[in-house]
Amino acid sequence: MSNKSPLTMSLTGIANFLGALGIIGSLIFVGLELRQNQQIAKVAAYQALVEQIADFNVVLLTSPEVSRIRIAALNNEKLTNFEQDQYTAYLRMLQRQSELAFVQYQAGIIGEELLTRTLGPFRSHIRTSALSRSLWEDNLRYITTLFDSRPEFEAHINSLVDGPIANSTNTLS
User: Fold this and answer.
1) Please, which of 43, 44, 103, 104 could form a disulfide with 109 given CB 3.0 to 4.6 Å?
2) Using CA atoms, how far apart are residues 142 and 137, in angstroms rounded to an integer?
């Protein structure tokens, strides 16, 4: 027989129950905090991407030379070696911006609509400019050889480049 009174056992049970409720409440609180922190991180990543796109577009709006070279490349006009180097640098910035958006999309930070809008200018350059297409295909050969397969970003861009024009969304870039 036990020496414990029913009241002591009852108080122990209540204390254990309240302790379990406290632990469950703490876990719910931590879960809500994590969710809120994820939302904050997503918003910050989205803002960083938008700022990057805005900065990139400022270059086009304020630099007539960069804009002229970009338009000449899109019109498949002959470029000097210096202009080709300038356009290649421009295109690489556009590609890095697109890669960042793709990574953010895969991580669930941005949605498909923003991904499509961000990739639109890069895709348009590859579709329109022979120089851009050549640079892209050289990059594809290199990256495919390097990794023995085509990484997801490159495969996604190729599906957009080879897909219908009707699905394109252009932005200022």
Assistant:
1) 104
2) 9
CB atoms within 10 A of CB 114: 17
Helix residue ranges, H only, the chain: 6-62, 64-74, 81-106, 112-128, 130-147, 152-162
Q: Judge whether 118 and 101 are in contact, CB under 8 Å.
A: yes
Question: How many C-beta atoms surround the C-beta of residue 84 within 10 A?
Answer: 15
Residue pair 119/164 in contact (Cβ under 8 Å)? The answer is no
Rounded to 10 deg, the angle between the 112-128 and 64-74 helix axes is 70
Give the CA distances from residue 3 to residues 101, 150, 157, in Å, rounded to whole numbers and listed in that order.
68, 74, 76
pTM higher than 0.70, yes or no? no
Do residues 110 and 41 make contact, with C-beta atoms less than 8 angstroms apart?
A: no
- Which segments of the chain have a pLDDT < 50? 165-173
Could you tell me how many residues make up the chain?
A: 173
Cα–Cα distance for residue pair 109/127, rounded to 1 Å: 27
Written as six digits, the tokens of 73 are 């490349």
